[in-house]
Structure formats: C-alpha cells, structure tokens
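We now fix the convention by which a protein and its fold are recorded. The integers have meaning only within a learned vocabulary of local backbone shapes. A complete example follows; check for yourself that the lines match position by position.
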Amino acid sequence: MKTARYWQAGENRSVNCALCPHRCRIPEGGRSRCFGRVNHGGVLMAETWGWPVALQVDPIEKKPLNHFLPGTQILSLGTLGCNLSCRFCQNWDLSHPAGESRAARGPVLPEDVANLAATQALPAVAATYNEPAVWAEYAMDIADACHEKGLRMAAVTSGYFSPESRLDFFRKMDAANVDLKSFRDDFYRRLCGVRLAPVLETLEAIRKETTCWLEVTTLLIPGHNDTDAELDELTAWVAGHLGVGTPLHFSAFHPDGQMLDVSSTPLETIRRARELARKNGLLHVYGGNVRRMQDWTATHCPQCRALLIEREGFGAELREMDAAGRCKACGRVCEGVWK
C-alpha cells in the first residue's frame, strides 16, 4: 500500500480521485469504483501497490505487441481492479474482485520485479492482465526500476485515463497496446460503463506527446461493433490521428463474461475489417485470436511486401528483416522498436 497520486481532499474527510474520468468522490473508509484505491482517514491510498496477483513470463506477441521486440519473452504482472465494467470481460475475477485487495503473493517491490526480469535475461516488463490505469503508481514505479537496469516497460490498457494522469503514465512506458473497443460512444456506455472520448484523447496524447511505442487492438463483437460504417470510421481515424504506421490488431470475439449469447466472430468479419483498414491507408493490420491464419499475423514490408516476420501461435521469427528493422529486399525501415 502506498499513498496515491492524483487526488484532492474533500469535505468531511472525503477525497476526490482524479486518476481517471470517473473522478470518484470517496468517503472516509470507502473504496473507489475501480477497487484499488481506498480512503484511509482522509488520505487516498493505492491499496494494490506492491501486491500483484499474477506474475509470469509470456511471449510478447501475446499482449499483443507485434512491432516491439518481436520473438522475445516479457515478464507480465497484474493486480486487481478495473475502471471499466465490460460485459465481455474475460478476467472478471481480477477486474471486479470481492473482499480484500491483497493477494497471497506479496509484497513485491518495484525493484524486485526489475531484478526478476534481469536475472531471467528478459528485456522488458508488462503491466497487463487487469487494467494498469488503476494501479498506475505501482506500474510507474516499476518502470523507473526497470529503466535503472536498462530494461523496458510496456502496458496493455483500455486507455481510460484523466488528463492529469495520462502523460505521467505513458511517458514512463516504452510501449503500449491500447484497446479501442468501438468507435461508438453508445457501445462504450452500454457495454463498458464509460465514454469513448477519453480513450481517443489518450491515444492522441500517446502519439503526439510521448515516445511510447503504440499499437491498437479492437475486439470485433458480432452485432455490436462490426458494421462496415463503424469499421471504416475507426480505421480512418487511426490512420489520420495516429499515423498509417500504427499497428492495428483486429481480434476475434469468443463468448465470455456476460455475453455468452453472442456468437464467435466469423473469419469473414476480420477479413472485411482488414480490407477496410488497408483501404484507409493503414500499413500493418493484423488478425488475432484465430487459428491457421498465419498471413494475418505476419509482418510484411509496406514497400515491397517481403515477409519480414513470420509468426505461428505466439512465436515470431525474423525472415527478410534485419535486427534494426530494415527490409533486406528493398531497404525500407519498418515502423517499430526492434533492438
């Protein structure tokens, strides 16, 4: 547990949290909507600081990050809580827990995380599994510890940050995959309990005001965010506001959470989404959470279409690309962080 950042004292020993757009007013003894922040005697505490519930090594492609240290392993950790309430959440027990926040594993200090990655010769650490926005202080402290050891830090996030916190957070991250769950505010309000605008603002802030490498993921849910009109608008926005070199991952939905009545995403939907994205100029468009579609996960040179990186499952192997990201066939440097 650690004193939180991004809050102000309120009346009668209440506190006003400014970490995310919810801006929770928390009475003394109360807990934030995201679960991880508690008012102790008029002081807001980041209660999950130092207490990960999951800590393991993953392929970096699992995040997914296809243009950031491909083919490497990354130390991944998560805590408890989330500031979204997605009806299709696959990790509801982590994101919306009941009871105390401390897990059996802990305390794990930021320097412990960095040391563990270093001793296993892992190049980076990822804040993932649950929403890192709600344990931003811990993630940022881990990033500092990693940078002291020459390691990198990544985040897998829904991007629901306030203007006060977002730049502090992403200026400490070396890479991020941000979910753009839909291009409709109604979808966000109805299925996630939040608004679209702050997510778009976070994406633009990462691109324009930080050096954090950015990739974007959209989970395609049949009947909810998969029309041609919406996908055309979403991909045009990514190309125009984030740049045509931004990797965009279209992930297939499988029934989960409170949406067991919705069918899995047809392959044709992902194929259609990729075509619309390419029509709007995006150079790196991937299909994920599907089997036996290796061409949808491979990285090709935008100039000559040579196969730069071949992927099977979560494995990746350089083909016609050197260690600096240069195409061996035509010499074009591919967008990404390769060394």
